Amino acid sequence: MKFKLNIVALALATVSTGAAAFDFGVTASQAKAQNTSWKCTKCISNQQVLGSVTLEAGMQDSKDAHSANSLRYTDGFAVGLDADTVIMDKGYRTQLYSDGLGSEQALAKIKTGRLGQWSMEAGYQTSHQYDADNAQSRWQAKDGVLIKQDGLKTQELALERQKFTLGADFSHNRFGTYVAMSSEDKSGKLRGSMSNGNLDAINIAAPVDYTTQNLRAGVNLKGDNWFAELGYNGSWFDNNIDKLSIEQPGYADAAQAVDNQAHFISLMGNYIFDRSYISGRIASGNMSQEGDFITLSGVAAGNHGANAEVETLDANVKFSTRVMKGLRINASVDYSDRDNTTDVHDYEQVSIDGVTGELVQNTPYDTTRSAYKVSANYQLMAGQRIEVGFDRIETERSHQDREQTDDNIFWAQWRATGFDMWDLRVKGSYADKGGSQFLYDDAVNAAEDQLMRKYYLADKKSSKAEVFVTHTPTDSIAISAHGYYSLDDYSNSSIGLIESNSYGFDLGLSWQVTADLLLSSDGGYQWLDNEQTSARSNYIGYWEADTNEEFGFVGAGFTYSGLSDSGITIGGDYSFAISFSDSYVDGNDVFGMYESSSHHANLYVNYAVSQQVIVGLRYEFEGYEDSDDTQLPVDYYPGTGPTGLTTLGLLDHDYKAHLVMATLQYRF
Amino acid sequence: MGATADPLDTLMKKFEEGKYSKKGADTCIMCHKRSDMVMDIFDSVHGQAGSNGPMAGLQCEACHGPQGKHKGKNEPMVSFGENSPLTAQMQDSVCTACHNDASQMAWHTSLHAEQDVSCVSCHEIHVVQDPVMNPSLQVETCVSCHTKAKADMNKRSSHPLKWGTMVCSDCHNPHGSMSDHELKGFDTNQTCYECHAEKRGPFLWEHVPVMENCANCHDAHGSVNSDLLKSRVPMLCKQCHAGDIHASTAPGDNQSIQTAGQGCLNCHSQIHGSNNPSGKAFQF
């Protein structure tokens, strides 16, 4: 594990800020043009090609493909190419970069151009994320149809992303322009489920076949103290599987993610005054879908698609000014409006209560959010600053349980970076969320308990505190500690989420033991607790639940260069992490074990055959285990699981994976 | 570690006087050519002769200020890092004079600038390749300060940051943005849609908290629950649906279809929104 403390960032603040802001930039200089006599014949690199290319080859040994998420290679022979190379030629510069090309998580890109004038870039990235390779199902997908098999078929749940990128930019004097586009295909299978609309469900290995194309472009102008840009962001999403059908009586087709596109035009800029800065952006957007309904059952004649459409408007302004020596005031206003312009029609629904044929209208949800923030940053004395701030966020919503919520947030921070060997930061905040009366008319099922408060709308009082400490007792040792606590009290909720709190700490140590040996270590622990209650109308079936989550990690690493005279360098690291969650309903542990743990170790040794050629050996290990006792085998005895549910089986992991790679590096 | 006012006063005075050298970088190299760190600038993007960068302008003095009486009387030059007499803001003014574009335009009003994090806190200049621009090294730089984010990467579910498949700057702009949390998108959801456009819709039947903010249910930095969920299913669902008839029932063990398998998502599988005319409850 490579570990670097934040001493550099913090240390910068130790500098006296007694002087007013002073611009040392070339745009403020007294000599803006180069003297033509400046030849600098020696201003060239000794080499035209710099960097390195590394080929690695070896073996991965694992019985679970999940290991490729971290080790990058699946079981068997492994080969990959890393490159980080620069070719320079009279102001032109070409960069070649690849990371794990040939592995399951690979990136490659090339960028070329004349620095400060133009550049072009192309890239390729592939990423595999393995969920499980032992899902079992009697249904196997072919395109969008889940075909029933003779028996259980083992299937892999994994997603593969293949992304291609292209970009170019050009600038001349005060003018600049750029374009960047990407096309990503996502395919594979993920955990899914289909329902018969009643209480029967079949978990499936749901096929995925998406393409997303994104485009960004902009033209900009800038002066010595300002910048302005007109930009465009576009995105097109295409799903080759618009619906899933399953060969099982009583199961209706399920609509999948709908083809859609989004377009945003933005105008943004900044202006730098003598003591003040202002930056702003306004963006107008449109998001729409274009898919036909997968069925016209229950749809009024002539209505073939939802034609859902949303208009957005975002505006943001940030301002910062130094009003006097040592005092800076910041303010910002953010406005965001979402206007859902989708036509409203009647649609026939299926109800789990057996009420079929009920006509329900779709709901075009609108939101408007305004945020006002102001803060002051004051230098108490050399190396000590105090900051205080107030944020107010007003959110209006249509067709929801509450039309308006208001958040008032007060925060303060004290930073001390002027002490010898110690840097301190303490931050605290208090927030109060309120709003309009809750509505219980058309928006809510009449059978719902009227004391129900959805947590993202509910009144809430939040308190947070954080402490950061960095200690450097000697030049060779740096210690950091970070503690945090937060409490969300849903003060007027009787039903729903009542309280949520989290607290924990992180510790770090970096120790340059000798000139050749660096040791580092870090670790931490976190607790997250939720308390929630539930009841039907008039407190029927009232219950309380506590969920306790914990997470811990620890790591250590070293690098040793004491044998570098012999051309040998050694390094390694190890980390361990554990996550678990327990839920208790009325004091009873209802879900059983829900835990994951991972060990990861890495050890390498490199030997420099010459200044150009380095050979090495790398060993990586991962031990991973997770569990979820609520999972069921595909077939279970009546009484050991719910009636009407067919699962994908037990998808837990428990494996040890090894990777041994020989490396050959050539340095230019 | 602190600096006296003298070097800073001298530097400001020198800068205002603007007494640049007569031969540019050649003057500097005469004395500094033995320093590998100095000479490495010519391997970097900033040191390329023939480019439109600093070497086409004031060369070394573009960043380090006018020479003045540095040669001979050893007057200080503008320097960077923890031992510089310049404040973080002053150091940054050197960089932002040129780097004022779409990705850096909000720097002066950014969280990093407010906390006196300087450009050189993250960036290295006199190198062939700035490490923070290397995707496999960027995360290490960020988590050296953002230690909780580092911890979160080790949780049961997280974005693949730990292994370098993703980097922090895929979602955040460290130079500041006009959005909350320095996100690159116009808001949280638009940032997520960059890679998860299948969740964008707009759907005929929208799940309101999903439409409003992905972070209502997910913690993007990592979770002890699967799928980055802030609480596990069905407890998360019941935090909002605790008053409905069938959703209000007490979660049992895996005897319940709300708990076993995929929990509530056994039936409500289209939880991010449905385009099925009969999909109001996100079942189809």
Automatic annotation (TrEMBL), chain A:
Signal peptide: 1-21
Domain of life where this protein originates: Bacteria
Protein keywords: Signal
InterPro entries (UniProt xref): Decahaem-assoc_OM_MtrB/PioB
Pfam families per the UniProt record, alphabetical: MtrB_PioB
Descriptive protein name: MtrB/PioB family decaheme-associated outer membrane protein
Origin organism lineage: Bacteria, Pseudomonadati, Pseudomonadota, Gammaproteobacteria, Alteromonadales
